[in-house]
Amino acid sequence: MVLTDIIMPGNANGLDLAREVRQRQSLPVVLATGYSDQAQAAANEGFSILRKPYSMSGLHDALREALGAAAKVA
For residues 47 and 4, what is the distance between their CA atoms, to the nearest angstrom? Predict the structure, then answer.
C-alpha cells in the first residue's frame, strides 16, 4: 500500500507517484490532501482520497477501504 500526500516538493506530485505505482505495481494507493481541486482530479482517476485534516479513525477507514478494494480486484 502507498499513502502519500498529493502535494510534494520538486516537480513531481503524489498524483504522479500514484499513476506510476498503478502502472508498475498492483498496490492500493491513498492520496491525502487539503486541496479540493487536486483531490477531484485524483478521484476522477479512481484513486482513494483522504481529506486533511484527518483523524486516526479517518485514516484507518481510508486504509481499510483501499485494502478491501484491492482485495476485490486481485
Answer: 11
For the segment 45-59, what is each residue's pLDDT rounded down to a tens digit?
999 999 999 999 999
CA-CA-CA-CA dihedral for 30, 35, 41, 47, to nearest 10: 10
**3-state DSSP assignment of residue 14:** helix
Q: What share of the chain is helix, strand, coil (3-state, %, to 5)?
A: 50, 20, 30
pTM over 0.85: yes
Residue closest to 29 by CA, chosen among 53, 74, 65, 72: 65
Q: Measured between alpha carbons, how far is 16 from 35 in angstroms, rounded to an integer?
A: 16
